[in-house]
Amino acid sequence: MPKAARAFSHIALAVTEVEKLARFYVDALGFERGAPYAAAGRRVATLMDAEPDGFDGVFLRLGDVLLELLAYKTQPEPGERPRRASEPGFAHISFVVEDFDGTIAAVERAGGQLHRRLDHRYVGPGESAIAFCLDPDGNRFELVWHPSPEETEAHAGFLGLADLGWPACYQVEVGLR
């Protein structure tokens, strides 16, 4: 039986302003930027469950991941920000970083903020660092840093990802992919 999905395509994130958020993800996290586009009309509105005046969009790339930013021309009334991670919907997106403190500093320089931080030892040596940050619109994202291959493997095991090749960048570094 063929797989229902052949490959992962992208993640779409509704934002208030495409340009502001694109600059944030490029400057703070190192995404590459695609060309902006716009879409509108009744057919698009029906498909996207939006107003017919449409939206502006842009795709950003980080490695194999594509992040689509969409700024709808008619935006709903703002709700509580940041949205509670326990509410149904996407809780966060996550990035493995090489320079934890440097990345947090870049996030803050680009208009985001550190929300919570945890230093945790899975097996050692050293402590892994995990932070939840907010982009300028209050969307939550996670930064993960491991000091050693042992910590990376232990964290992957804790999350049930040992057989799924997480994180892919580590799997490539140690020759597993």
TrEMBL record:
InterPro entries assigned: Glyas_Bleomycin-R_OHBP_Dase, Glyas_Fos-R_dOase_dom, MMCE/EMCE_epimerase, VOC_core
Pfam families, A to Z: Glyoxalase
Taxonomic superkingdom: Bacteria
A single BP term in Gene Ontology: L-methylmalonyl-CoA metabolic process
Molecular function (Gene Ontology), one example: metal ion binding
Gene3D superfamilies: 2,3-Dihydroxybiphenyl 1,2-Dioxygenase, domain 1
Keywords, sorted A to Z: Metal-binding
Domain VOC residue range list: 7-146
Protein name (record): VOC domain-containing protein
Organism: Dactylosporangium sucinum
